[in-house]
Amino acid sequence: MLPFILKRLGLALLVAFTVSFISFSLLFLSGDPAAALAGETASGEDIEAIRRLYGFDRPMIVQYLEWLFAAVRGDFGESYYFKLPVAGLIAERLQVTMTLGVCGISFALLTAVPLGVAAAVRPNSIIDRVALFLSVAGQAMPSFWFGLILIVVFAIQLGWLPPSGADSWRHFILPTIVLGYYAMPAIMRLTRAGMLEVLNSDFIRTARAKGAGEGRVMFKHALRNAIIPVVSLAAVQMGFMLGGSIVVESVFALHGAGYLAWESIARNDLPTVQALILVFSMFYIVFTFLADVLNAWLDPRMRSS
Amino acid sequence: MTDDTLLKVRNLTLDIPVGGGTLRAVRGIDFDLKRGETLSIVGESGSGKSLTSLAVMGLLGKGIKRSADEMTFEGTDLLRASKRKMRALRGDRMAMIFQEPMTSLNPAYTIGDQLIEALLLHRSVGRETARARAVELLEKVGITAAESRLGQYPHQLSGGLRQRVVIAMALMCEPDLVIADEPTTALDVTIQAQILRLLVDLTREMNMAMILITHDLGVVARVADKVAVMYAGELVETGPAASVFEAPSHPYTRGLLRCIPQPGKTERGAPLGTIPGIVPSLIGEVSGCAFRTRCPHAVPGCRAAIPMRGDDVHGYRCVHPDGAISAEREIA
């Protein structure tokens, strides 16, 4: 198991390194950063002055390494717009985003996996139909629309929950449902398909022939094998939720990292965008790594490959 | 019914609802099994032999309708036994060995876990005791370094080793009945004989009864006490192995026997026998002898219900009183 983990860790670091280079290059791919900073009315001399001030005149590799070493120490420079250190800005916003992401994926897993198992145990039953309806509806409904419906019903008409903000745990209930419901259909369908396949396999019959009860057959023998692709999917979705929940954050006025990214792109605030891209990529890398390790624990055959 | 009768099955019928009606997969099977006895059920693919064994274990798939006049195992009425009772019997008093050793073990657990589970499901013993029993059984099925094998996963073992593990798992609780469903079919020819020998030796040593399902008559001749020949869901001939091989009475049994080479009798280079034709569809009403479409001795009477002939020991189901043996001799 340990060699496998080390190998995956090495791979993850390589990917992280590549991603850091790409996110740094974005600065130059989006045009002359000095000209963008100086503004439309700036003279050529002003642009040159800014270029020297920010160090854009030095070789790119030098700038990259400098940026990378600073980033590793947690220094992402200063936001062009807020005139504050980017690191602090992101750390503050990440709290909201991570709370929402963890709640969202937990909600998705806790509803999707049991529903998928139940649907697979009795295909074409009422439960299966209900699960199918929920997943189709979840896939078809845009998040912003579903979020608005929930706000109208539960916040405005019933008055049970606050419509926006991030002041208490109650503020997170509606966004969690919206974000979780977005991830739920795919997880549910994958759990159902996996369980259906595994339940037809010979080793399930062996378990029954041993005298194992249905609960044991389902959860000890079947689910462990069926859940493996679900783990990989959930990891990707978790990464997505931490980086891309811009829509949900906007609808519920939760000022998280996704919202910050959207704002910063609009304001051409390159150091912030760069840092956010790096942070979001790191989330993906970390979750993929964790999913690989978890899968290797679940399925011993993966450890050797 | 004498005291040493372990399993008694009367008029077992299995119907499978399919798109175009009902598939009459098994029709009116009778058989008995005594303690320590080996019964071999022989037949082609699709003859219903595996379904018959799954019906005894109570492991039929959803939708398959089972009915019988009688089905008792150690005095338990299997037709009316609760799910809980069946679970208690399965793996403890009756165990099953499946055909595919590559897929019949759970890839996610060590073989030690799976062996130990088989015992812990039925006995309230400690994990250490169960572990010791697992080592004992692995040694019994001829696995060396048993202690260290416990920590291995199925994918780390060869097919032959896995089938030994499957056998060890079936024997963890010392069952009274082992059902082996083509236990050697998926293995290399060189391993087949070893595994079969092992099974026979172990059943004798532990005084277990065995139902051996196979399409290999060579296997049957070597190990079975009794033979039941199935064709298209029916029992066409049943009796002591020696008697069935000596005097095969049903035309189908004779056809099957002609398909296997016999040392000393079959000429080198001469073509082996085949049975022309295909198995009939069993969807809808099936009447008379199912073999009549392929039987060289078929007469109009084959369409009617055919009685079991012969005596209590060796029976066969044929419209011809002598199973058309005289007709066959005339042709020869």
From TrEMBL, chain A:
<feature type="transmembrane region" description="Helical">
    <location>
        <begin position="98"/>
        <end position="121"/>
    </location>
</feature>
<keyword id="KW-0472">Membrane</keyword>
<keyword id="KW-0812">Transmembrane</keyword>
<feature type="transmembrane region" description="Helical">
    <location>
        <begin position="275"/>
        <end position="298"/>
    </location>
</feature>
<comment type="similarity">
    <text>Belongs to the binding-protein-dependent transport system permease family.</text>
</comment>
<feature type="transmembrane region" description="Helical">
    <location>
        <begin position="226"/>
        <end position="255"/>
    </location>
</feature>
<dbReference type="InterPro" id="IPR045621">
    <property type="entry name" value="BPD_transp_1_N"/>
</dbReference>
<feature type="domain" description="ABC transmembrane type-1">
    <location>
        <begin position="94"/>
        <end position="291"/>
    </location>
</feature>
<dbReference type="InterPro" id="IPR035906">
    <property type="entry name" value="MetI-like_sf"/>
</dbReference>
<dbReference type="Pfam" id="PF19300">
    <property type="entry name" value="BPD_transp_1_N"/>
</dbReference>
<protein>
    <submittedName>
        <fullName>Peptide/nickel transport system permease protein</fullName>
    </submittedName>
</protein>
<keyword id="KW-0813">Transport</keyword>
<dbReference type="GO" id="GO:0005886">
    <property type="term" value="C:plasma membrane"/>
</dbReference>
<feature type="transmembrane region" description="Helical">
    <location>
        <begin position="172"/>
        <end position="191"/>
    </location>
</feature>
<dbReference type="GO" id="GO:0055085">
    <property type="term" value="P:transmembrane transport"/>
</dbReference>
<dbReference type="Pfam" id="PF00528">
    <property type="entry name" value="BPD_transp_1"/>
</dbReference>
<keyword id="KW-1003">Cell membrane</keyword>
<feature type="transmembrane region" description="Helical">
    <location>
        <begin position="133"/>
        <end position="160"/>
    </location>
</feature>
<dbReference type="InterPro" id="IPR000515">
    <property type="entry name" value="MetI-like"/>
</dbReference>
<keyword id="KW-1133">Transmembrane helix</keyword>
UniProtKB/TrEMBL annotation, chain B:
<dbReference type="GO" id="GO:0005524">
    <property type="term" value="F:ATP binding"/>
</dbReference>
<dbReference type="Pfam" id="PF00005">
    <property type="entry name" value="ABC_tran"/>
</dbReference>
<dbReference type="GO" id="GO:0055085">
    <property type="term" value="P:transmembrane transport"/>
</dbReference>
<feature type="domain" description="ABC transporter">
    <location>
        <begin position="7"/>
        <end position="257"/>
    </location>
</feature>
<protein>
    <submittedName>
        <fullName>Peptide/nickel transport system ATP-binding protein</fullName>
    </submittedName>
</protein>
<keyword id="KW-0067">ATP-binding</keyword>
<keyword id="KW-1003">Cell membrane</keyword>
<dbReference type="InterPro" id="IPR013563">
    <property type="entry name" value="Oligopep_ABC_C"/>
</dbReference>
<comment type="similarity">
    <text>Belongs to the ABC transporter superfamily.</text>
</comment>
<dbReference type="Pfam" id="PF08352">
    <property type="entry name" value="oligo_HPY"/>
</dbReference>
<dbReference type="InterPro" id="IPR003593">
    <property type="entry name" value="AAA+_ATPase"/>
</dbReference>
<keyword id="KW-0472">Membrane</keyword>
<dbReference type="InterPro" id="IPR027417">
    <property type="entry name" value="P-loop_NTPase"/>
</dbReference>
<dbReference type="GO" id="GO:0016887">
    <property type="term" value="F:ATP hydrolysis activity"/>
</dbReference>
<dbReference type="GO" id="GO:0015833">
    <property type="term" value="P:peptide transport"/>
</dbReference>
<dbReference type="GO" id="GO:0005886">
    <property type="term" value="C:plasma membrane"/>
</dbReference>
<dbReference type="InterPro" id="IPR050388">
    <property type="entry name" value="ABC_Ni/Peptide_Import"/>
</dbReference>
<keyword id="KW-0547">Nucleotide-binding</keyword>
<keyword id="KW-0813">Transport</keyword>
<dbReference type="InterPro" id="IPR003439">
    <property type="entry name" value="ABC_transporter-like_ATP-bd"/>
</dbReference>
